[in-house]
């Protein structure tokens, strides 16, 4: 089969690799849609590497190339003998993380038992930690990692359930923190700042408005006017930081009170220099985007002086349903199917073949109108219903 292989930093090559082997508890999925994530861009550009050896050392791509792609959906084409609730032809989205449930391990480790599956003691992640990702024609996944999607939902939208799952998990962690300002406590959150109006920031905005029913001020900052137009449409207060000083804007909108709850969803480390002038003392910071380069860690001194509640979150962790499948993904799927969360408006770039995906990393991410790219192989699948080999 064909796959887009990241052989070194910024070196993506489409070539043949072996078809996946399907163990008894797994299925083979023909990939139909893959979301292009900012994490993929960081891996492509050499700004991050989560594929570690036994000593915790990042393994260089030239030693162990990677196949990216962790937001995906597809069609089951082969079923392992122990999988009883899936069959060829089923359309599924996938939790890319392998945990205790994925491997049928009992007893569960303490993290899986508490619903923190991304911290599983035996965790591995497709497209992130060295396991084959979905930028390929086929991928083998544990049956319990596959959630069926309704016929009414496109494969493209199925692939975008994963980023919403990450937002749900992150929000849950922030809401469970022992913070001074909360949505239901004595000292209520009266305002929120979302730094970054990319896919994650826009999902956080919709979650707060449509799921949490938060009717207070939500400021969203970015430099891209197209993204900020969506912020207006979705009920946020946009601030274009290319034209307006963010600190001045926050002070104006909050009457000098500053921000109770700050969500860092931009992945740009410059925001950490600005947080001391933005955050109310003992406010909450949700670290989601994680700036990957360009700032000294000493800048944390003025942030820590505020005694903030710092919440870090990774992936779409959550509990498991009775059938062992990830509850967070099912919740995210329901929100998209119901229309409470809209993801279609974010998709600005589509790619129709593996050979096209390099454009996302080499060029499209820098375009002013880029919000989200998706590799959509559905048309190719429909035109050629051939077997795996």
Helix content: 25-40%
| Overall CATH architecture of the largest domain | Alpha-Beta Complex
**What is the CATH first-level class name of the largest domain?**
Alpha Beta
In DSSP terms, counting alpha (H) and pi (I) runs of 4 or more, how many helices? 13
Sequence of secondary-structure elements:
EEEHEEEHHEEEHHEHEHEHEHEHEHEHEH
Say what oligomer this is: single chain
What overall form do the CA principal axes indicate? globular
Relative strand content: 15-25%
- The helix/strand class is alpha/beta
Radius of gyration: 21 Å
Major sheet characteristics: 7 strands, mixed
Tally the structural domains.
2
Instruction: Give the tally of β-strands.
Output: 17
CATH topology of the largest domain: Quinone Oxidoreductase, Chain A, domain 1
CATH superfamily of the largest domain: Medium-chain alcohol dehydrogenases, catalytic domain
Mean residue pLDDT = 94
